[in-house]
């Protein structure tokens, strides 16, 4: 049996923290699917297609990482892709409370899929996509938080 992990999120935009988790997950699992949620209710800055394309470009060097967009229930997506793990990142105590709720609900809906939590490297603990968007909108330098490809995409959005 292959160990397949789904790492879901909005990734609006993808950050070094996200990339750190994917890098580590790629060493643990046979296959990692970066599952980019449509999340229209969150009013994302980047379209689903833009977020998928950015992530595909960023993770193209990883042979066991695949990027896919989705707009259905995460557990349905995981089952469709034969994943047995949902990977989530934890940065703060606040993250833990929310993620605990999600993991409990997911276990209730499908006990065959485990939730696994990873913490990003300490240097990425404070990075969030929301903060990155705010800094970029105010013409601040985000190059220490996101790859150059994302910096360019943010400049394009906010010019």
List keywords for this structure.
18% strand; alpha/beta; Rossmann fold
Detailed description of the structure:
- This protein is 42% helix and 18% strand.
- The protein has 159 residues and is of the alpha/beta class.
- The chain has one domain: HUPs (Rossmann fold, 3-Layer(aba) Sandwich).
- β4 (85-89), α4 and β5 form a beta-alpha-beta unit.
- The model has no long low-confidence stretch (mean pLDDT 94).
Distance between the termini: 48 Å
Largest sheet: 5 strands, parallel
Strand order of the largest sheet: 3-2-1-4-5
β-strand percent reads 15-25%
* Number of distinct beta strands: 5
* Average residue pLDDT: 94
The CATH architecture can be named as 3-Layer(aba) Sandwich
Q: Identify the CATH homologous superfamily.
A: HUPs
- What's the CATH class, please? Alpha Beta
Radius of gyration: 15 Å
Q: How many domains, as an integer?
A: 1
> Which structural category do the helix and sheet elements fall into?
alpha/beta
Number of helices: 6
Q: How do the SSEs run, as a string of H and E?
A: EHEHEHEHEHH
Low-confidence stretches: none
* Portion in helices: 40-55%
User: Can you tell me the overall shape?
Assistant: globular
CATH topology: Rossmann fold
Question: Which SSEs are present, and which pair or pack?
Answer:
Layout: E1 4-9, H1 16-28, E2 31-37, H2 48-58, E3 65-70, H3 74-80, E4 85-89, H4 93-109, E5 114-118, H5 129-137, H6 148-157
Parallel strand pairs: 1-2, 1-4, 2-3, 4-5
């Amino acid at each position: 049996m292959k160990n397949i992990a789904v790492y879901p999120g909005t990734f609006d935009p993808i950050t070094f923290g996200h990339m750190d988790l994917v890098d580590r997950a790629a060493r643990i699992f046979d296959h990692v699917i970066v599952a980019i949620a449509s999340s229209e209710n969150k009013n994302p800055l980047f379209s689903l297609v833009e977020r998928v394309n950015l992530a595909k470009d960023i993770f193209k060097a990883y042979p066991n990482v695949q990027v896919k967009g989705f707009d259905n229930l995460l557990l349905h997506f995981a089952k469709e892709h034969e994943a047995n793990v949902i990977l989530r990142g934890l940065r703060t105590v606040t993250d833990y409370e929310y993620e605990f709720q999600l993991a409990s609900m997911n276990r209730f809906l499908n006990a065959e899929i485990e939730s696994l939590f990873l913490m990003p490297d300490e240097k990425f603990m404070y990075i969030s996509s929301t903060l990155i968007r705010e800094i970029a909108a105010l013409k601040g330098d985000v190059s220490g938080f996101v790859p150059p490809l994302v910096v360019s995409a943010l400049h394009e959005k906010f010019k």
